[in-house]
Amino acid sequence: MRSMLKVGWLALLLAVGCAGRQDLEAPDHEAIYDMPLEEMWPSVREYFTDARLPYREDRGSLVLQTEWKQEFGGSKIAGYWHRYMVIGKRETPTKSKLWIIRITKSVNKALSQPGKELDWGVSRGSGGLSVEDEAARLAFPVGENAFYMESGQGTRDLTMEWRVFRGIMPKIAKKQVVSAEQPVAKAAPAFTECGQSILGLKKHAKAGRVMLLGELHGTQEVPRFIAQSVCQLVTSGMPVTVGLELPVENEERITTFLQSQGGEVDWLKLMEAPFWRSPYPDGRGSEAVANMLEQLRQLRAQGLDVAVFVYDHPKLSRQKREDALARTVLAQVKATPRRFHLVVSGNIHSRTAKGLPWDTQYTPMGYLLKDQLEDVTALDMAYDTGTAWICAANKQSSKLDCGVKEAKGKDNGDRFFMHTWSSTNKEGYHGVFYVGHVTASEPAILKGLGNPDAAPAQEPASSL
Fold first, then answer.
1. What is the pLDDT of residues 215-232, one digit of tens each?
2. How many distinct structural domains can be found in the chain?
């Protein structure tokens, strides 16, 4: 009997794995604890205490609620905050489970309401260049999002439920394993708030793969999508390198910032670059991009494996620029071939098909990379209608006009996701990454970044 107990708990330890990693999976079933609820609940309290998620508890009903925790806490720009309501439930007299409801707040804008009808096509309304004008190619991504229940401003978070399960069970097993010689998992570190899990991310993010994201510059949502993706990957143990379409002259300055303490002097040095003060800011120097760099810096400060490089050559144009972009990205990928490379650019550069409507011989960066690398996936941006900071040609003055402009898209709900099709479209995209309703992000300099007197982000007032 005793040997059977030892074998059973050892199997559990191997199944649970390392508790120090935040699970990347978006499961479609519940975690069931093979013990009564009252016996399991003290370990729930211990998990949230160890994860530095302060909470209040209704002990009579076995329900607790955490305090608000900011994504990438301490961001220079007000962003998103999350709290969790944890509800203990009896599955049977000898088995139990947790329901964990994630509640999200933002001081930037009201959260869009869930439950809208899915509509896969997206059009930018820019002279026939669309994110995806072949809606029939998309099929509903079944499985991952089929189990999520929407509840007002809260969403049931199965990923968090399994994360708690994997954090609790090794400690319980350690207490119950008879022999001290049995291996046990290390205690989990403080919890990193990465936002709600991105649907499809786990399927498409693989070590050694290069993923090209073709974006519309100047939104708050794309930089947040990138930061959340990186956070969810590196906390699950995958090393990630982010490539940004910023001038190569900024490489050393950005690397220095990412390795810094993120103090006011560090911000001033980052923002001293002429790039941030361009007379025609096209959205790549936005407050959201600056905030994303801060979020990546914070992940690195926790010892997580994040790297960043920049690859734009703004002094070149047309095909010479595409060639230079591809050479710079290729050199980075070949230097670190076992990492996952997430390369972000305007959606012309990331295409893997040759030719543009006005130049059939044009060879984008994505096409050049696909020819040199074995595993390249290109995703185009999909989004719900909103606004973006866009630079467009003024027909009367023949100059660029930069500012907040409408961005026309189609509603696919309020959940970030990645989705690929069975074959590429005519632009060479394998699928889309969806960021929901978009909101313009103004140039970082206009928002006071780099200014020691700039006000820090404010936490939203508690409603409970």
1. 999 999 999 999 999 999
2. 2
